[in-house]
Amino acid sequence: MTRFLTALTLIALTGPVFAASYDRPIPQAQSATAELWFFLASVTLLAALLAVGWLVARK
């Protein structure tokens, strides 16, 4: 009985091997709004880094 359960378990665990293949998603182009927000975030990060550098240099 144990051999039967072991064989059944192994068969059940190999089931996902026969699943459908993975379809890679196709990346979409960024919109102008997304590019604007990325630019604003980049400028804000740069300003924060410059502020931290200035504060550290003062000490």
Plain-language structure description:
It is a single chain. This protein is mainly α and 59 residues long. It has 2 helices and no strands.
Question: What is the structure about, briefly put?
Answer:
This protein is an all-alpha fold and 59 residues long.
Share of β-strand residues: under 5%
Number of helices, counting only DSSP H or I runs of 4 residues or more: 2
Radius of gyration: 27 Å
Q: Helix share of residues?
A: 55-70%
Number of strands: 0
**Multimeric state:** single chain
Q: Give the structural class.
A: mainly alpha
Show unreliable segments.
none
Mean pLDDT reading: 85
Main β-sheet description: none
Q: What separation lies between the terminal Cα atoms? A: 76 Å
* Overall spatial form: elongated
- One letter per element, helices H and strands E, the order comes to HH
Q: How do the strands and helices of this protein lay out in sequence?
A:
Elements: H1 2-13, H2 32-58
List keywords for this structure.
59 residues, mainly alpha, 2 helices, 66% helix, elongated
